[in-house]
Amino acid sequence: MTQDNQGKKTAGVDGKKALRPNQRLKLVKELAFKGYKAKALRRVWLPKPGRDEKRGLGIPTIKDRVMQALVKSALEPYWEAQFEGTSYGFRPGRSAHDAIGRIFSTINQCPKYVLDADIAKCFDKINHDYLLSKVECPHNIKRIIKQWLECGVMDKGIFEETDSGTPQGGVISPLLANIALHGMIKDLEKHFPNSKKREGGSVNRRFKPRFIRYADDFVILHEDYDVILQCKKLIAQWLEKVGLELKPEKTSIRHTLKSIKQDGKIVDPGFDFLGFNIRSYPVGKHHSGNTGGKHPRIIGFKTIIKPSKKKILAHHEAIKEVIKANKKAPQAALIARLNPIIRGWCNYYRTVASKETFSSEAHILWNMLRAWTVSRKKKKTTLNKALRKYFSNGKHGLWTFQTKDCVLYHHAETEIRRHQLVKPEASPYDGNWTYWSIHTRCIYWDTK
């Protein structure tokens, strides 16, 4: 926590950002449940991307972070064996790509209605009594968890009590949020039979709605619009006991293949989830897949997942800001700042149909860098000569933005690699080292 934690440069109320080696050893000796008392959190406000809103983080002290990591390491293996298979957020061995892959496998052969929902202020509103009643652990650990929930926050020198929620910024907060939301999927599925006859006489053997959750964002998929409406009502009722509610402006019903009327407006097919646009497109029989099995039928559409327009525009803005901030910086410095942004964005979207997007982004970036070059050239220098100063023949062709020591990463050089979907029941703590070594391409050693 003092070295590897991503938020290690943010201090708690004690003002400490880091510890020296001797201080870390002293801290280890002080770790004990008996006599432990959590300190208040320090409020830090971060802007939400693309919005005027701000997200309030509660930053614990280093000692509290270490204690939270200790308790988390004790609770997480048990809860990983309990959590629902289609819950993917803030869980080891799972990612947003698993959630997207599960959605694809659900809709790629049958178009469905989608309840795309978001829980309002999930981390801030969770009922403490409800959460603590679900946490199964020794009394002394539960007492400490209660302290973390109720320790309060210091915001610009003013103390505020925390009567609800699991403050964002704590090491254990994501796990506690998942514990609070655990059971939502199973309780919803209990209201629906496994199979049901369709109007035409055929039997839908997968009648239960498909529920995919990533932290406080989730989607529910089903062929029947009325079932989706029923799910929305049931979820709202379930969330009440947790102290939560759906966010109306971020909750909508859509269809993966066709436009539908929603609140008096025509809504386009498809939906955005976790930065991806998911939609089925009607195609002719020569481009359509089939259902497979003994009696295959042509499905008449193709499901394509690609980066959402919102995230593409956000990526443009991020690159534009870096280029603008480095108008007078050396070319190598600009490349060093752009490469992590481009590479990270491409790696996130490399698992879906992003080839055209990557090519388009590469062209847009070239134009941005051309403008950057023009802004630096002298009046008497020709444009071609100025461009040749920064662009030369390299691995991306004649117009490679590079220096002798570094090359700008090219969107289009990113190779598309399909993500291997994690098994619903799998957990890194289940002892199946063979599965996880293959799935994650690394080896988990048995330490017994």
TrEMBL record:
<dbReference type="InterPro" id="IPR030931">
    <property type="entry name" value="Group_II_RT_mat"/>
</dbReference>
<dbReference type="GO" id="GO:0003964">
    <property type="term" value="F:RNA-directed DNA polymerase activity"/>
</dbReference>
<dbReference type="InterPro" id="IPR051083">
    <property type="entry name" value="GrpII_Intron_Splice-Mob/Def"/>
</dbReference>
<dbReference type="Pfam" id="PF00078">
    <property type="entry name" value="RVT_1"/>
</dbReference>
<dbReference type="InterPro" id="IPR025960">
    <property type="entry name" value="RVT_N"/>
</dbReference>
<dbReference type="InterPro" id="IPR000477">
    <property type="entry name" value="RT_dom"/>
</dbReference>
<dbReference type="Pfam" id="PF13655">
    <property type="entry name" value="RVT_N"/>
</dbReference>
<keyword id="KW-0808">Transferase</keyword>
<dbReference type="InterPro" id="IPR013597">
    <property type="entry name" value="Mat_intron_G2"/>
</dbReference>
<protein>
    <submittedName>
        <fullName>Retron-type reverse transcriptase</fullName>
    </submittedName>
</protein>
<dbReference type="InterPro" id="IPR043502">
    <property type="entry name" value="DNA/RNA_pol_sf"/>
</dbReference>
<keyword id="KW-0548">Nucleotidyltransferase</keyword>
<dbReference type="Pfam" id="PF08388">
    <property type="entry name" value="GIIM"/>
</dbReference>
<keyword id="KW-0695">RNA-directed DNA polymerase</keyword>
<feature type="domain" description="Reverse transcriptase">
    <location>
        <begin position="27"/>
        <end position="278"/>
    </location>
</feature>
